Known about the structure:
Order of helices and strands: EEEEEEEEEEEEEEEE
Number of strands: 16
Largest sheet: 4 strands, antiparallel
Strand content: over 45%
Distance between the termini: 46 Å
Mean pLDDT: 80
Low-confidence stretches: 181-191, 200-205
Number of helices: 0
Structural class: mainly beta
Strand order of the largest sheet: 1-2-3-4
Amino acid sequence: MVALVGCVALHRPSQLLAVGFDSGSLDLHAVGTDGVSNPRLTTLAALHAGGILCAAFSSDGSLLLTSGTDGRIQFIECELMGSKSAALVGTVALVSQDGATSGAEGLHIESIVADGELWLAPVGKRIAVGRLSRQGDGIVQYVGPLHHAIDAVQLLPALGSGDGGIAAASFGGVSLWRHAEASGTGDASDGACVYVERAPRLCAA
């Protein structure tokens, strides 16, 4: 039986390529400097109970996050030197929110993003926010809700002396949050955020 590809993720600095399948398995490849050769380094079989729909590397490439149709975020440690191995080191189960889609295996998570500290995943009308952790410590906050299900999310870098933040696109516009100050609703490393504004969606003429 041929497995269908559900997602791909590339960490360009390390030339590491992750390929997730509808079978729940994941292949890790090393992309050659020619951009063509991609020997398979390892396979993680049955990583998810359902299909893998999304994957994202941390900014340094040491962690790979995956999710799909079972409502779980899997944390995979990638050993980029030596044997180029990979191992599952943590799991976080997300809680269904208003507007989320579910199936036979569980909650559907179709998108995930990560940087050096945080990860985000849209869950219906809210955003699941967590810390990058090799233990998958389960500390998750749900930002929102918005009026409509969220289509896409992005982590915003800090510019100058300003804070980084979160952007979420849904029907009608883009909503922005900034990371909370430690003296406010929580430390940014805990995923705490403060709502900033909602901007109208830009439409092509």
